[in-house]
Amino acid sequence: MKDTDRAAEALNGVSLTLTNARxxxxxxxINGTLRVEDGIITAIDTGNSALNGAIDLGGDFLSxxxxxxxxxxxxxHMQPRPGVKWPTKAAAIAHDAELASVGITTVFDALRVGSxxxxxxxxxxxxxxxxxxxxxxLQNSGAMRIxxxxxxxxxxxxxxxxxxxxxxxxxxxxxxxxxMDHTPGQRQFRDLSKMDEYLRGKYGMTPTEISAHYExxxxxxxxxxxxxxxxxxxxxxxxxAVLASHDDTTxxxxxxxxxxxxxxxxxxxxLEAAKACQDADIRVMMGAPNLLRGGSHSGNVAAQELVQDxxxxxxxxxxxxxxxxxxxxxxxxEQGNMATGLRTVTHQPxxxxxxxxxxxxxxxKRADLLAFSLSYHLPCIKGVWSNxxxxx
Length: 392
Prior knowledge:
Layout: E1 15-24, E2 29-37, E3 40-46, E4 55-56, E5 61-64, E6 66-71, H1 73-78, H2 88-101, E7 104-113, H3 128-141, E8 147-155, H4 161-165, E9 174-180, H5 192-203, H6 207-238, E10 242-246, H7 251-260, E11 264-266, H8 271-279, E12 283-287, H9 288-293, H10 303-308, E13 314-316, H11 323-335, H12 338-343, H13 347-352, E14 369-375, E15 378-386, E16 389-390
């Protein structure tokens, strides 16, 4: 995958020197100086630089910019309060600025595709194509601070999935297509009481409305489930996207993912499923909020349990952007190597989606960079650079 937006074009003649830094490499941390020319890392040296114009980081950590594969944060900006709809371009710009402020320099914006047109309770209406147009327009005009790709969340239990996906092409920067199935009683909501709680909290649904909603979803899945699973995977491959599964729970779920060519598993709900993914060379992603809170808000497996068993590859901020760096730093401190923790939010997510030009501080890589210090074991961001340009 390559970045071709205007924001990714290096500015000729622009140089940057960052010195007196603890530089976080892929496997180690060294003290030294980093040099950038035209948006590309050109030199990494041990020791400090007295070069005129060099920025002294005072011993702060200097890591690659964070790579976020799954975030619902844009939705919060689009609907800041229940019933309030914010203009989409304004929401996208605010979302972009927030991500830059917490060290994220590459994001795959999650957009749901697949709507339920026969009911109105949850307002599952089509929106992805229009929002994608706004994101891409802003990216191509240079209005965005960081690099945006699209992550299409293909809702299998819907009525319009294939038609909505067919509106996208390879020109749309679709990097991930995740196959989601929120049919009640399985995967994330195998425990129906948790789904009841979610529907009451988000939509204020009564028990009668919840029961009717379940019956509608069961009928939709019966009619469209198999067709949508195959069609979404096919279209995802046609778009050149990496396929992801969502909420794998059993070995059978993982076997299904293997058959479709899935390469990333988003939020497996059991240790059994996570281990099966690892055995199949499928990268396992878990939420940083889960790690920081000590457990899943849906009652599923804790991210820390996967860390302890060595089956967690990638962290995602999910619904809390600031959690991404916090989670990675926590892992680095726990494991006694900051490079190990930062890999889960830099090199490993970039590698999982074939972004070869970033996610690592190395000569020839894109200069997406993040400077931070620690206070009370928490990261304090001191500077963020995207493609060699300061954005935070």
